[in-house]
Amino acid sequence: MNPPQGKKTEKKPLGMQNIGNRSSENSSHSLARDTLHHTEVQWLDSGAGSSPSPRLFIAAVLRSWMRVAAVFPPPTKSVPELDAVTFGHDALGAILEDLWAAERCLQPRFDVALLCTPPAGERSPTQVIGVMTGSARPHSKGFYIQGLSLHPLLFRDVDALLYAAGLLVESAIDVSLEAGLQGWVISSTTEANSLFWRNLGFSAPSGPFVKRMGYFDHPPLRRPG
Question: How far is the C-alpha of 136 from the C-alpha of 111, rounded, in Å?
């Protein structure tokens, strides 16, 4: 089953290539919201021999994010009320390790979703503001979110962070529905980041897992103004 094409919004994309030209914390806070004016979720082909290689593309995304983080380092208490710091660019490094292992058949392959500000032409790593990995798992009766990572600038704005993460979660719901899994989405969690998942409409942790069923457990996403 091929993952669906992502949802699109209506405004003109901003892109993130010129991020280094903005120097103040206020402007970076604004940019975190501006990048959400026009986004779409795209899926990388994670099959064997796919081109471009998902691992190489995600490696380029990680380099781009690290350059941004060097200019606008996330606050030391990044979104403390959500304990969401574990979903930053360090999480993208973990996703990269998973891709390396999957290429070598050390773990099952999985799908890779990108939250992008759409480029005018070919997809560019600088347009990626969120990455999610996972797969539909009939035996678990849901789409399992294996990894989630968000752009460094989003950690300066709680609403922008949750909106971006919510778009990726909704794309997982769509895959779950297409797979006949009734829109169930599952992820593992820890006590430290369970509140982050709760704010995305997931249940309270049951053991190491949180669950959400379709669009019914959470109000519609509203892009932060």
Answer: 9
Q: What is the dihedral of CA 36, 180, 132, 123, to 10 degrees?
A: -60
Question: Residue 52's pLDDT is what?
Answer: 67
User: In the CATH scheme, what architecture does the domain 19-180 have?
Assistant: 3-Layer(aba) Sandwich (3.40)
DSSP summary character for residue 186: E
* Four-point Cα dihedral 13, 16, 19, 24, nearest 10: 50
User: How confident is the model at residue 53, as a pLDDT?
Assistant: 86
How far are the Cα atoms of 50, 153, 202, 217 from residue 80, in angstroms, in the given order?
A: 39, 15, 19, 24
pLDDT of residue 205: 82
Q: Token pair of 61, please? A: 């995304």
Q: What's the rounded Cα separation, in Å, for the pair 211 and 170?
A: 13
- Per-run averaged pLDDT (10 residues), the chain, 225 residues: 46 34 48 78 72 88 93 64 72 93 90 85 87 94 95 88 94 96 93 86 88 84 78
Residue type, 155: F
CA pair distance 114, 129, nearest whole angstrom: 8
HSE (CB half, 13 Å, CA atoms) of 19?
28
Q: How far apart are CA 111 and CA 120, in angstroms?
A: 24
Give residue limits of the domains in the chain.
19-180
